[in-house]
Amino acid sequence: MRENHQLALVETRTDPGSRLVRDEVAAVFEQVLGHPVQITDDTDIVEDLGMDSLGVMNFVMAIEDFYDISIPLDRIAQVQTVGDLVHAVEELRGGASA
Amino acid sequence: MTILAKHGAYKVAYDALREQGVDPLNVRFDSVLSPTEGILNGRRTILIGTHNYLGLTFDPDCIEKAVEATRSQGTGTTGSRVANGNYDGHLRLEKALAEFYGRDHAMVFSTGYQANLGVLSTLVGRGDHLLLDADSHASIYDGSRLGHAEVIRFRHNNPDDLYKRLRRLAGAPGDRLIVVEGIYSMMGDTAPLKEIAAVKRETGAYLLVDEAHSLGVLGDTGRGLAEAAGVEQDVDFIVGTFSKSLGSVGGFCVSNSPDFDVMRIVCRPYMFTASLPPSVIASTLQALVKLRSEPSLRVDLMRNARRFYDGLAAMGFQTGPEANPIIAVTMPDQQTAVTFWKMLMESGLYLNLALPPATPTNAPLLRTSVSAAHTVQQIDTALAIFADVGRRLGMLTADRRRAGASS
Fold it and tell me: Looking at this predicted complex, what is its ipTM?
């Protein structure tokens, strides 16, 4: 089941739509936290998901590995909600492929 | 509401700690007697958490040099080297450091913290890339914010992760600077410097090593991890401090970079702060002489580190991966850590209580650091106190075995 999930993720990576990036982000959250999460663009990563600073760092590193990007520290500092993160990922992926 | 109300969450956590009867951020010694002993709450206490690696703070020659310098040159320089000029000592100390490291250039800062602020913010700027180990010291993180380089964190002590991140930067303009520490100050582990140097060579990055906790500790002649790992040629910049093995205060950077001295006119944490007073310069110079001429200090230091590390491990305490002079004992939770720490102090042992978020994981730490000046008897006394407190809290391996057997 986990493998199927991964396959689905790989397929969605071809589509740059924000909704799909958000679904991928949710999947990475679930991997890091070990349980399902309900997220929207407005979900606050620290407040709503109860992550401490170490959890956030591990999560960010998992996101970085998933997309093969590095999110610079000043960009991470600007990220508060899932929507912010999706926006940062899209920007960095856009920059990488340009 | 006050202007500081934004820090309320920290205050709440700190107040809760104080309600438990401890105030780890505000310990007050009645007096300090030697590198390894002080009076705390009226009680003679062994200091085993003050990073006094070579025990030189009370060295008679270092004290004499400091006194002499104060008498002849005064208590302070009252300003920066840019404004008030260099004293002979500043230049002699820089020469001595360059010579010790076998490098062309050295620069002295007023604290180790400022050395990192200054060097990191000057070496890389807008359009450059700074690659930091995730467990880097606060001064490295703060230095990274003072400049305008893009800051990327790699997984602690993970050269593959570092490589991956440098590979992602392929094609991007700008310099790359990798920053690692000789010995990490929380867990006492060393960087895998050979492997990191290989990544550096392959990717064309520069490499800076902060030897704050490894100067005078590692390497055949005490130059630190770069010497111990045999990769000094790959290390472009070494940063360090006088406030640990050299027993004073101040920081430095050494390098072979040919245009190194341009830092003196662009590096703000060097330019816009008062220079070190003559007494500090004089004792530091003398301590460096001791560090070089008495390799037995390092032998004593590592003997003590090994003895304390093995002793703690034998009792079943969870320590860091290496028997270096920083030895951190991982505690299961904050309540236990606070109680344990308080009981150690009441038994005459002083060390650091390190709580998240200052620790690399979510676990609180009892952080110790041994000194060459500790006698074997002091190490054994410290172990006995750990055993006693551990037993009283039911944390020793033997206790747990017994508990397991009876259940």
Answer: 0.80
